[in-house]
Amino acid sequence: MTASHAVFDKRVKRIQRQHLKMKKGGVVHSVSHDGLIMARPRRQLPRFPIKALVFLVAAVFLFKAFLFISLGPTEYQSRVETLAAGTSVEQAGGMLMQTEPVTLWIVEMMQRYAL
């Protein structure tokens, strides 16, 4: 393959990638300085995984409720206070593991519907 064929193949691959981007994400048309209408792929912003974040928050609340039921309210609270008295990382964990109305509601639902 000669050098001109390599340049041509590279250009074809670039055009195919651009067309695939336009097919997936849409097209933006613009007029260049010489009056030519140009079609370019729409810029895609990185998507934030909302479902993953909701799942993570729900998992944390379920884990807290499970620990609350397993340890009991007094033991759970004493362990959270121990965390709050520790290092900065442990203090952050203690703040995260505090009992709040959502956790207590989940505990109530888990105890109500336990087999």
What strand order characterises the main sheet?
1-2
Query: Given the structure, what is the number of helices?
Result: 5
Q: Name the helicity range.
A: 55-70%
> How large is the radius of gyration?
28 Å
The main β sheet shows up as: 2 strands, antiparallel
Instruction: Supply the helix-strand structural class.
Output: mainly alpha
**Low-pLDDT segments:** none
Overall mean pLDDT stands at 90
How far do the termini sit from each other? 73 Å
Structural shape: elongated
Binned strand content: 5-15%
Give an account of the 3D structure.
The protein is mainly alpha-helical. It has a domain at 50-112. It is built from 5 helices and 2 strands; from the N terminus they run H-E-E-H-H-H-H. It has helices at 3-25, 50-71, 73-84, 88-96, 101-112, and strands at 27-31, 37-41. It has a two-stranded antiparallel sheet. A hairpin with a 5-residue loop joins strand 1 and strand 2 (37-41). Helix 2 packs across helix 3, helix 2 crosses helix 5 (101-112) and helix 3 packs antiparallel against helix 4. The longest helix has 23 residues, at 3-25. The radius of gyration is 28 Å and the shape is elongated. The model has no long low-confidence stretch (mean pLDDT 90).
